[in-house]
């Protein structure tokens, strides 16, 4: 059976880990070469692009793409996990009125680069061990803060007061790789002077893959029964369409597939990565400027070799 090659824009359901989603896709496509492009917590649903076959070479690039989420923040109590699944650790009833204009003003101040400390319940490794493993042992350890970027954030619901004197509202945010929306929700609460947590989250876009591009697992299984699961795979080239593109003359195609260096006179753009295509419209490799040899391009990622 021919190895499937392409990108599956999967809609991951709530209650399933990203690991289990990948495991299910491996079974459906009968392949081991599968990789996802950015973990979603079990309680989060949304866009999870999964690479199959040769497309797994693109995982690092697709993971680095910006993401868009729709989330809900609840002011009034915080939790161990910074989301609705954790135990309550701090409470403070919201007695003042939080106005929509106050939220919008706060959001304007969040746009740009911010510093986050990853939550203890996260998959980041510190000293060879994942943070959530320390957390399950009841340990809180120092973890490195990091800078992330908020490109856009907006209020998408009224600000509501709940019967137990908490406040909640929904927001849409586009951010860089590595942004924790749970931690952002806690930060929003802190700015208003209240403990807070992320009470709901959906990823609506990952890079250029959006909700409307996605397929659910039950529909994928139905396609498998008809042996039509490959019909929903998106070509590698679709994921690379935002990179500058060079269609190679036929005499250079073989050289590129052998990983040869090329003169930078082939390009007239100042971009970190350039996609090299053959005459048939297949992307053979991503190239970059050679760091040591002036005037030359070298392969950054080989996608099709001899």
Automatic annotation (TrEMBL):
Gene Ontology terms for molecular function: RNA binding; tRNA pseudouridine(55) synthase activity
Known EC number: 5.4.99.25
Residues at the active site: 41
GO terms classed as biological process: mRNA pseudouridine synthesis; tRNA pseudouridine synthesis
Domain of life of the organism encoding this protein: Bacteria
Domain tRNA pseudouridylate synthase B C-terminal: 182-240
InterPro entries recorded: PsdUridine_synth_cat_dom_sf, PsdUridine_synth_N, tRNA_psdUridine_synth_TruB, TruB_C
Residues of the signal peptide: none
Catalysed reaction, written as an equation: uridine(55) in tRNA = pseudouridine(55) in tRNA
Function: Responsible for synthesis of pseudouridine from uracil-55 in the psi GC loop of transfer RNAs.
Similarity annotation: Belongs to the pseudouridine synthase TruB family. Type 1 subfamily.
Protein name listed in UniProt: tRNA pseudouridine synthase B
Organism: Evansella cellulosilytica (strain ATCC 21833 / DSM 2522 / FERM P-1141 / JCM 9156 / N-4) (Bacillus cellulosilyticus)
Lineage: Bacteria, Bacillati, Bacillota, Bacilli, Bacillales
């Amino acid at each position: 059976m021919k190895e499937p090659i392409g990108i599956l824009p999967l809609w991951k359901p709530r209650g399933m880990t990203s690991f289990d989603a990948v495991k299910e896709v491996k079974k459906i496509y009968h392949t081991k070469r599968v990789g996802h492009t950015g973990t979603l917590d079990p309680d989060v649903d949304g866009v999870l692009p999964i690479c199959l076959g040769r497309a797994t070479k693109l995982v690092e690039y697709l993971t680095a793409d910006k993401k868009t989420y729709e989330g809900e923040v609840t002011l009034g109590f915080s939790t161990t996990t910074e989301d609705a699944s954790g135990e309550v650790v701090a409470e403070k009833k919201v007695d003042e009125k939080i106005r929509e204009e106050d939220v919008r003003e706060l959001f304007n101040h969040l746009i740009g680069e911010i510093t986050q400390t990853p939550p203890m319940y996260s998959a980041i490794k510190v000293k060879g061990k994942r943070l959530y493993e320390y957390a399950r042992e009841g340990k809180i350890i120092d973890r490195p803060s990091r800078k992330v970027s908020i490109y856009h954030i907006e209020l998408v619901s009224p600000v509501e007061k709940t019967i137990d004197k908490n406040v909640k509202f929904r927001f849409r945010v586009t951010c860089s790789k590595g942004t924790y929306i749970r931690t952002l929700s806690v930060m929003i609460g802190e700015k208003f002077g209240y403990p807070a947590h992320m009470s709901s989250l959906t990823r609506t876009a990952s890079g250029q893959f959006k909700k409307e591009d996605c397929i659910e697992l039950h529909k994928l299984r139905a396609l498998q029964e008809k042996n039509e699961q490959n019909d929903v795979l998106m070509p590698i080239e679709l994921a690379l369409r935002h990179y500058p593109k060079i269609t190679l003359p036929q005499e250079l195609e073989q050289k590129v597939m052998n990983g040869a260096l090329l003169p930078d006179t082939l390009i007239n753009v100042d971009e970190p990565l350039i996609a090299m295509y053959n005459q048939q419209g297949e992307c053979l490799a991503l190239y970059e400027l050679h760091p040591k040899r002036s005037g030359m391009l070298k392969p950054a990622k080989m996608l099709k070799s001899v």
